[in-house]
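Run: sequence + NAP -> complex structure.
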Amino acid sequence: MSAPTVELPSGQKMPVLGLGTSQAKPNQVTEAVKAAIDAGYRHVDCALKYGNEAEIGAGLKTKFDEGVVKREDMFITSKLWNTSHHPDDVRGAVESSLTSLGLDYLDLYLIHWPMAFKRGAEFFPTDAEGKMMWEDVHFTETWKALEACVESGLLKNIGLSNFNSKQIQAVIDVAKVKPAVLQVECHPYLNQKQLLQFAKEKGLVFTAYSPLGSPDRPWAKPGDPSIMEDPKLKPIADKYGKSVAQVLLRWGVQRDTIVIPKSVTPARIQQNIRVFDFALTSEEMETIDGFNVPFRVVGFDWVSHVPEFPFHEPF
Ligand code: NAP
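>> structure
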């Protein structure tokens, strides 16, 4: 099965379902990428921060060498980490991801978060008290450096991740190359109704990360709500002969969001793309819309003192 695509303002087509790779261990992710391509995936969501781009690149290379897919068949995303927001650091970060992935361009590159952490090699540069240190660089300056990478052909499309509506507007206000995609957490417990509407009005394609509620996140606390275990989803899944995960992904694509479920398990990878052969009724869509808590699995609240922390705003 293959996923339908949406057209980005650049004219490029982005598959509405992709493979997530955060928390995918380097020794598992090569096989996961290969299984995903064999199952029909043509979109992989990566980031320098996930520490596994070389292993993802190895999986891609195998499938290119086998002739299963060509580079231009694939849509590959990566992200700029918070320690590389300084305009002088941006091109190097892009090139580093390209080298690891074994590619000469990226289809999409996102600013991972709107906050700039202190420059340097450490992903989480903290002071003696464990507090995040930050850099006085605004993301609009970072955006300009990304536009230069589009101009030089390293990036086909650029976009934003974990930005709130005011921050998105601030980028739009200065952009020569408009942000093509907004990637944020989204699942029925955090349905992002207002932000989704805002993104649509501004012409950004909306990607839902953690579409299954990220059940494997290491920071999960006892008592956190778990969308995969919501008893109201099971009867809907049973009605279509599908799994709860497939219902969650179907809900996502049916409300015009792109979903990027992570799995390193071949059977689940295959299952997760089989969501284009059934449709939820409008009543079922409304029922699931009504599950909103809201509950964030990626709150990142220990850096809420850093300028431009995005979640102080309502949306
Ligand atoms: P997720 O996709 O919501 O959930 C992944 C978990 O669900 C894994 O434990 C996986 O297990 C399990 N799973 C997958 N398919 C399943 C199925 N059919 N049945 C049962 N369990 C299933 O979580 P996520 O990794 O947080 O989010 C997805 C992707 O979004 C990430 O990988 C990353 O690419 C992106 N993301 C981006 C940001 C950002 O800041 N931009 C933040 C978070 C995530 P196995 O792997 O063991 O099969």
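>> summary
The two ends are 35 Å apart (CA to CA). Strands lie at 5-7, 13-15, 19-20, 43-45, 75-80, 108-111, 158-161, 181-185, 205-209, 258-259.
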